[in-house]
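Agenda item 2: zinc ion complex prediction
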Amino acid sequence: MKYSIKSALLCLFVAASSGSAIAKNTISTDKFRQLEEILPTPNTYRTASGAPGHQYWQQQVDYKINIKLDDNKQTLTGSQKVSYTNNSPDTLSYLWFQLDQNQMKSDSDSRQMATAPRKKMTYSGLRGIIEATEFDGGHKVTAVTASNGKPLHYVINGTMMRVDLPKRLKSGDDVELNFEWNYQIHEQKVLGGRSGYEYFKEDENYLYEISGWFPRAAAYYDVMGWQNKQFLGSGEFTLEFGDYDVKITVPADHIVAATGELQNESKVLTKTQRNRLDKAKTAKKPVLIVTVEEALANEKSRSTKTKTWHYKAENVRDFAFASSRKFIWDAQGYKQSNSTVMAMSYYPNEGNPLWEKYSTEAIIHTMEQYNKYTFEYPYPVSISVNGPVGGMEYPMITFNGPRPTLNKKTGEKTYSRSTKYGLVGVIIHEVGHNYFPMIVNSDERQWTWMDEGLNTFLQFVAQQAWEEGYPSRRGHAADITRYMKSTNQVPIMTNSESILQFGSNAYGKPATALNILRETIMGRELFDFAFKEYAQRWKFKRPTPSDFFRTMEDASAVDLDWFWRGWFYTTDHVDIALGNIHLYRPNSQNPDTEAAWKRALHNEKPTFISDLREKGQWVRTNDKPELLDFYNEHDKFTATNKARNSYNSSNKKLEQWERDLLLDKRNFYIVDFENKGGLVMPIIVELTYADKTTEKIQIPAEIWRKNSKNVSKLFISDQEVTAIAIDPNWETADVDVNNNYWPARPIKSRFELYKRKKNRKDMMRDYNVKLKSADDKEDDKEKEDK
Ligand SMILES: [Zn+2]
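Presented output:
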């Protein structure tokens, strides 16, 4: 029979074997050393529990902006009024603003710091490098004035602008500033980045995805002071929450999608469009506000008039928008407990049939899933736009790239598996960013993992709820092992601009770590409560890593310092190996029983090779049996009467329970484990018994507390154990599972056989091949491809 975990584990911790003495200075080897010495000292702004303190504060910045998009020159011209409220306890004599467009300047820091390309690169890669040196990008600030119209002194340093205030801004006071600016929008497919335009040469139209487009007040907060680190391309942004009132003037035949609620529907939408929008609010599936036919007709129009789309957005940390003649637009209301959110998708016909089928559905799915683990989506709209940007998030609006492939000859559109799941996945991811970091406003310029890691974790959970066996790219423990054992890596706790292997470091590893925390270490109930608590505590506020680490412990009573230390502060990996397996039983002390056991053990030993060969050979005692005596009749294990008497008298002195222990017939297995990777983790052991039943036993990571290299564990069972596996479900990201099994398993693989190519190059032959035109060559190539 098999034992339940409780009965089997009369768990004995057996100290490490003598070979691995602990060094005298144990500081560096203590994987459980508490994090207090690394985390910032708690204060009245941020408590030791990980919650905002009673004097937590943050700035408020409200914007009123007017902009004009010139579709002929691809420029954006704007003027804005900024109301800055100083809620900090400090007096400010200047304000810092982000001019992220300055990253596009040919002499920007991020252009200058780019290292040389490798020998092999794509055409578009080299084109981008060359055009970046010629592009006239960057914010052209034409005026900065005070509310009375007086010019203000300002200094631009790279992507940052310091505006010197005419009068020091005291705690609790506010100030109004006015800006005028313009800039040249770049072609995203050529120069990259998170915004820009896409040009469609077939119909000569532009599609704009616009972000980082206006001077935005940099964050000022208790931990950082001014977050005025230069924008170098990787560390995105953190801004202040505020209310936005934005008027966007575009060609009259453009459709605009933007952060916030449209204020003047009657001015910019037709009656039909408004009716459709109304219908969409309660529809069971997406309703087309602009149909395919209407969008294709729009593509051909070239209005010389303009329309101004007026939006308002409350309590957002940024504002982005998209605009084009090419947009098909669909919408569907998502009813939550307190509100109905309009889920809306905007895409050119090039995005179909994928977009009409999946986009809006994926938006709704994301809110439904994320709401469960965080808080109810607080905004009135949630938008997914298809354009040149592969995947990027802003409050209420996301830019998502995947499209099907068009066969130009047949007009047929098909898509690959990775495009389909890539589209659903990227929409879940980007819409999910509304929660982290658009609402739980972590500092992306400092810590990429705080939004990407947490969001990728929930993305995985949401994807798994989309369809059974959804092929998530990140989240399964086994998928991170290659990265974990790679050498070219830095800890997760690394500033955004210094991260190596960006995707694996800031998305994959933290997402997988959280998944392991949820499934293996804390369990879903404790984890989900603590994670939700973190989201609730910090929504519309700005958390730091310690607030996350502390809240997860505070709400669960699980000491996770070892986990944060190992997974977030080091590059160790998990590799726990099975060592020796010992089978014990109590020594019965009965000389006859023990003699028989010793004899049997002796007989189990293999016969030495020369003994084997000499068996049956002539020996002297064959001829002279008189040489044999007492010792030939009794082997060295034989019990004596003296020993029996001594056993009898000592056995009599024992109590019954002591006597019972001597006769315990159960199997006592002591199994040795070695931590080869460095990361301490629970040891999950699966025992297979003689009757083929199995038992899974989870030993907490704390077993490694006193020796993080070698530990042994006792397992007691009635039955013989026939096989042992560590981490049988591959849930700990163990990078080498080949040392996890007893008996060992073969590593299965394939020989890939191939034929040597004959006559690969023959100039004499190739020189005289018949010359064809370029079109002929295309045909040849197609034949080859088939
Ligand atoms: Zn992301």
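Discussion summary: The two ends are 60 Å apart (CA to CA).
Owner for follow-up: CH.
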